[in-house]
Structure formats: structure tokens, C-alpha cells
């Protein structure tokens, strides 16, 4: 049982945490208000995230073929036209966004988690562990990532869930960020404040999570965005090439059908169906790239002190 003092302490801790989050959000909105480019980028990201989260529930997808409506041009009834079977293209874009965005964000999360654990451990511990980890990283960096990804994906003979696809992509893309984080840690651990923390007898856990990790947050956040963009390219590319088990709705599958089966570059009627997923991929990439310019300001302590 928690006593009265314990409850008061817990409430104070929660209150301080909420105040900290409120302060972070307030500062972030200040930066976004000043930097309209980052605000536009964040708006694009939020738009596609919401489309993936609630779009399929709002905009139904009918997979029943309607040959009489084959490759209709954009109209009020079909804003992006129809496909080779007379099915609504916009519905396929919306439903396909769920798997694309889910895989992208999960891949970014997996890559960052793996890289943080291995990169910080390798850089801080050093010695034989660091040497072993860097040899493993070198092996992964030597092998071209996308051909390796194609080989792994082609060996799978069943439809994969977004988590499984994300794990496959993360297993190929973790090495570069791991080496980069390890290099940052090697530099940070020689700083005077790290030496002071050691002299004070603070443990490795405290030094890593309270002294080293905060300095890595801007770098990790920016690489998270780049990893998400790379994961979108990788996933769409795998479905486009046809090496992943076929799924009914995916932007890469739409590209595969439009180009390989319907001669999309030669037939103008196919262009709305062909370029819809292409434009979506470009827009998502643009959103993350624009938002990257704002992340440095959000995490920069000098700017934070100036704003204060």
C-alpha cells in the first residue's frame, strides 16, 4: 500500500512531468509558428498519418470489378479515376497508405532502438566489445542493402504483416546509424562533464541516459525521419518489383500493375492510376524533409535558452 506521503510524492512527480511536457509542446509550437516550412512539413506528415489511421474506416474500398468503368478519368465520383478493373483509385491509395505508413514508422522505430542500444553500448564500453560490434557493422555496410533486402524478401513465400516487413527492412538498415551513434558517443564520452560524472561516482546507467543520450536526441530524431523515408522507398520498391508476396492494396503493387501489366507510360488513360502513388510517395518524402529543418531548432538548447 502507498501511504499518504507516497501519494503526494507521486502526484508531484506526475505534475512535474506534465509541466515538462507542456513546456516542450509550447516551445515546439513557437518554433513551428516561426518556421512555416517546418509547419507545412508537419502538416503533410499528419495528413498522411491520419489518412492511414482513419481513412480506411471513412472511405470504403470495393474490390468488385466493374469492367465498364475501366480507367475512367478523374471526376466527382472518382477523384483519382479508376483502375484496370473499374475500381476507385483514391480508395486504393487511402487503404494502401495504412500498410505503407505503418511499415515506415515501425521500421524507423526498430532501426533507432537497435542503433541506440548497440551504438551507445559499443561507444561507451569500448574494448573488445566495440571491436566485435564494428566488425559486424562493417559486414552489413559492405553488402549493398537493397539487393540484400530483395534476396531476403524473395525468400518469403507468404503474405507478411507490417511488423514483419518492418523487421526485415530494419535488419538491413540498422548498421549505418549504429556506427554513426557510436562515433558520436566516442566524442561525447571524452567531454569534461562526463569525466566529472565519473569522478562523482555516478553509475554507467546514469551517465548514458542522463548525460550522453540527451546530446544524441537531435541526431537520432533527424535520422529517424530519414529512416522512415528510406523505409517507404524500400517497401514500395519491393512490392513494385514483385519480390514481396502479393497484397491487394499497396502503393508498390499499384505501380507494378500500372507499369508492367497495363503499359502505364504508353497509355495515357493509365496515368492517374500510375502517378497517384508516385505523388503520394513524393509528398510524404517532402513532408519529412521540410520538417527536418525544424527539428534542429526544437532540440537546440541554445535556442531554448534564447526563447526563455
Describe the fold and architecture.
The protein is mostly helical and about 300 residues long. The protein has one domain (about 25-305): MetI-like fold (Orthogonal Bundle). It is built from 11 helices and no strands. The model has no long low-confidence stretch (mean pLDDT about 80).
As a percent range, the share of helical residues equals over 70%
Helix/strand/pairing class, anyone? Answer: mainly alpha
Q: Order of helices and strands, N to C? A: HHHHHHHHHHH
What is the averaged pLDDT score? 82
Summed up, the helix count is 11
What does the largest sheet look like?
Answer: none
* Count of individual beta strands: 0
CATH topology annotation? MetI-like fold
Number of domains: 1
Which parts are unreliable, with pLDDT below 50 for 5 consecutive residues or more? none
Rg (C-alpha, Å)? 24 Å
Strand fraction equals under 5%
Based on Cα principal axes, name the global outline. elongated
Any idea of the CATH class? Mainly Alpha
User: What's the end-to-end separation, in Å?
Assistant: 41 Å
| Secondary-structure arrangement, i.e. CATH architecture | Orthogonal Bundle
CATH superfamily: MetI-like
Task: Offer a concise description of the structure.
By secondary structure, the chain is mainly alpha-helical.
What's the structural blueprint in terms of helices and strands?
Blueprint: H1 4-34, H2 36-58, H3 89-125, H4 127-142, H5 145-154, H6 162-188, H7 192-199, H8 204-241, H9 251-261, H10 271-299, H11 301-307
Helix pairs in contact: 2-3, 2-10, 3-4, 3-6, 3-8, 4-6, 5-6, 6-8, 7-8, 8-9, 8-10, 9-10
